[in-house]
Structures are given as C-alpha cells and as structure tokens.
Amino acid sequence: MGFIWFWLVAVMLVAYVLFDGFDLGVGILHPFLARREEERQLMLRAIGPVWDGNEVWLLASGGTLYFAFPLLYASAFSGFYLALMIVLWLLIMRGASIELRMQMEIGVWRSFFDGLFFISSALLAIFFGAALANVIRGVPLNEDGYFFLPLWTNWRVGPEPGILDWYSVLGGVVAFVALAVHGALYLAVKTEDALQQRARVFARWAWGVLAALTVISLPASIVVRGDTLVNYKSYPVTFVVPLMVVLSLVCIFRFSRHGGDRMAFASSCIYLSAVLVGAAIGLYPRLLPSSGDAARDITIPKALSGPHTLHVGLAWWALGMLLALTYFVIVYRMFRGKVSLDSGGYGH
Amino acid sequence: MLSFLIYGTTKAEVQGLDRFPRDQWPEPLPLLFYSYHIMAGLGTYFVLLMAIAAFLLWRGKLFQTRWVLWPLMLSFPLPYIANTAGWMTAEIGRQPWIIYGVMRTSEGYSKYVSAGNGLFTLLGFMGMYTVLSILFIVLIYRIMEKGPLPGELGHAGKHASLTFA
N or C: which end of chain A has fewer CB within 10 A? Predict the structure, then answer.
C-alpha cells in the first residue's frame, strides 16, 4: 500500500508539473515574447481556459499527502511554513493577474497585472524547483519528525540548511529554465506567425542552457545526497529513466528544429516526467530525508496512514481520477487548435 | 422543537451550556451568540424576501413593485455578512476543540512555527484579501452600473428597461 500511494502521489505531482508547468512557462515568457497587446492576449488565451484546472493537480497531490502520509504532511508543511505561504500568495496573485487584467481600461491597469503575472509565474517556478531540491537534500529532522527551516542560513548545504542554499537555488534555476522551455514549446503548438516563431527560437536557444543545467544537476545531487544512486544500483532497470532524460532532451532539440511542435512539446513532457520520476526513484522509500541522522528520515512506513483508510481512499481516488481525467479530456478537446483573437474573452 | 431539529426526535434532551464543564465552553461567548443569531436572522430575512419576490415574479408584477425592488438591491452586502457570521459561529463554536472530544486546539497547533511567522502570514493574508475585496467591489460596481445589456433578459426585458432607465 505504501508503495502504491507513494507512486500515486508522484504521478499526480508529475501531472501538476506537466500541466501547470506550461502555464508558468507562458507567464515567464509573457513580457518577452509578446511585443503588442494582441500578442499578449493571444498568449493569455493559450492558457486561459485550462490554467485553473491545471492547478487542481497541485491540490490533489497535497490533499493526497494529507490523507495517505499524515506525518509527512504535518512535518513538511509546518517546516516549510514561510515558503509554503509565499507559494500560496504567488498562486493567488498569478490567478488574479490573469483574470483581472481585462476588467478596466485605466492607464497602468494592464501593465501592472502583466508585471504581476510575470513575477508570480517566475517566482513560482523557482520556488517549486527549490522545494524539490529541499526534499532531495534533506532537512534537519528532530526526534519526533518535525523541523523548521528559515528561509536561508548560510547558503551552504551543511547540518543547518535554510530553505535556500546553493543546491536549492540550482534546483530553482533548473525548474525556471525547464518550465520556460516547456511553456515556449506549448506556445509553438498553440500560436501562429510571429509569436510562434519567437517561441520556437526561444526554445532552441534556451535548450542549450537547460541541457547544461541538467548535466550539472546530477553530480550536484550526488554531492549533496550521497545515496541517490542506491536504488538505481539495486535495480539496474531503473537506469532507463536517466536515459529517457537524455533522449527526450535530444528529441526536444531535433523536433523543434524541424517544426515538429507537437512532438517537441511531447518530448518536453517526457523530459519533465523523467526528471521527477528519477528523483522519486532516488528518494524511495524515504519521503523526506534527514540532513543529519539517517535514522530520522521520514520513510513510507513511518508516515503511512492505517490500512482501512488507504483501502477506502484508493476506491475514492479511482473514482475522482476518472472524473478529473474525463473533464480534462473534454476541456482540452474543446479548446484544441490555434488561438485567435476572434472569440470573446479567454474562451471560458 | 429544538431537540427535533438537532436529534431528529422530540424525545431527546438538548443540553444547555451550563451542563458542560466550564473548561469546555467556547470563548468569547457573546461574539458567538450574536454571530449565530445574525446568521440565522439574515437567513430568515432572505427566505422571506425571496418568497415575496418569487411570488410577485410569478404574478408578473415584480419589476413594478418598488418596495420589494429597493430591499432586493440594498441587501447586496448582506449575504457576505451572513456568510462570515456563519463561519465565525462554526469556528468559535468549535472551541476549545479542534477535533471534537479528541483534541483541543491548544494541543493541535504546529509547535515549530513561531508566533512571528504566524503573525506575518496572517497580516499578509489580511492585506491580500483587503486589496482583492476592494478590487472586487470596484469591479462589481462598474458592472452593476452598466446594467444588463439590451435584449439579454428575455421576455422581462421590456419591463426591465422601463425601470432601469
């Protein structure tokens, strides 16, 4: 059961990164790829009908965490308190900036919300990357499984890390670039003409940065957490995952060069999934490692709920997932194709 | 009557507050009392107002009946007040329990999150919600000012344009 729920949570987190990743990517690119008001609106229309539903995956994984791994939920959410609250505020501001942008014709209204949209999307990408890096690096857990991290201490990964240190900042930058590329590839699918061209050009340029960062992050992870590769060595079949990371990176480059926008976007989805699954494999069966004594790791058995809860939950999870996936298929089919300025509003 | 509403039978006994130990009373008590009664009172008012309005709508006379139209329009902020009062009732009334009968609020808080952090985020949320509420009121007011677009109201549209002119 622990194994099942670990991977269910992982799958939902991956779904969140794939879906909201391009929303954040579009937000990051919004001030740079759009030169005119019409282009800004086109970029917003590309994510308009779907951004709200995409965010739902974050709540789903967080809620499932609460239900299946209550100790992890309690420990992590109070330990990362400030960062979590900031993420919450950024999510609110990102949503408000998308929806309120068109409401008034006062001078700086639109520019203000465009700026807010960019800043909140960029910071969200960085924070999410830093969060993943924190989980990999480990936190100073004490006896009863709790901890509290200040936002930063000395930027070093030692016995007393802060939420931000060189490794989690690296994680944040990787996420920032990866999601920007993901968003650009999504735009290449959804837009036409000049905007699509600029998105493609950006994706190709940023690909180099992303590849370099990916290469740097693996040894960095090994330095920070020496036992990352233990699971890989025990089950050599899992080496297919880092292989997928490399392959998908290559595919992104090749497809976007030849105008295969959909395949390039699909490759980007595979890249992000492979990176996250790879991190999960390195983590298993820990949920939140300890930066000090390894006996204090929050592992699956330590954090798991009782068997009755988990069995009942599995049934309801399946039902909920069925509904959610049906909804997603319907919405994405309804709004498929290129965006245009004809229809009113964001189409939702 | 009250026992029927709570327990589903007229035979059950509804215990008054004086039957519970003093350390299980919610605090502050007057705030709880008034918020509950504001919520229930406003709710009753809504039911009455809407019943009258529905009756008049059915008779086709709603849009000429000014003494109903004025309260309908002026009651715009009241649902927000009733809503908030209801939540206050629920959250103050549950004290001192965070899980009724099992865990008190004083045992259930995050021990490692300092009070300063809590205050900082509380002020942050209050500030954000204040700004968003002001934006909301401003935008809603602009929409109400514009009124309904012509032709949008169906068969009642003719009457609406008379009174909104």
Answer: C
Alpha-carbon separation of residue B2 from A5, B17, B35 (angstroms): 45, 14, 19
**What pLDDT, in 10s, does the model give residues A113-122?**
999 999 999 9
3-state secondary structure of A288: strand
Contacts B123 to A, Cβ<8 Å: none
**Per-residue pLDDT, A345:** 55
Radius of gyration of chain A from its Cα atoms, rounded to whole angstroms: 20
- Sequence length of chain B is 165
Please check whether residue A147 touches B, CB under 8 A: yes
Predicted local distance difference test score (pLDDT) of residue B156: 47
Cα B144 to Cα B146: distance, rounded to the nearest angstrom = 5
Quick check: A150 contacting B, CB < 8 Å? no
Residue A105 has what DSSP assignment? -
| Interatomic CA distance for residues A77 and A20, integer angstroms | 21
H or E stretch including B97?
strand B97-99
- Chain A hits for B113, CB-CB cut-off 8 Å, are 78, 81, 148
CA A136, A142, A143, A146 torsion: positive or negative? negative
| Residues in CB range of A26: below 8 A, 6 or more apart | A43, A44, A46, A47, A121, A183, A186, A187
For residue B126, the distance in angstroms to the closest alpha carbon of chain A comes to: 11
b vs e for B123-146, b when ≥16 Cβ sit within 10 Å of the residue's Cβ? eeeeeeeeeeeeeeeeeeeeeeee
Query: Where does the pLDDT of residue B112 fall: very low under 50, low under 70, confident under 90, or very high at 90 and above?
Result: confident
Q: What ipTM was assigned to the predicted interfaces of this complex?
A: 0.78
Q: Taking residues B47-55, what's their average pLDDT?
A: 94
What pLDDT digit, counting tens, does each position of A188-229 carry? 999 888 889 999 999 989 999 999 999 999 888 888 887 778
Strands (E), chain A: 286-288, 298-299
Two tokens, residue A180: 């920007």
- Residue B104, SS3 per DSSP: strand
Q: What's the whole-number mean pLDDT along residues A73-92?
A: 90
Residue among A164, A157, A161, A79 nearest A123 (CA): A164
Cβ-based neighbours of B133, under 8 Å, separated by 6 or more: none
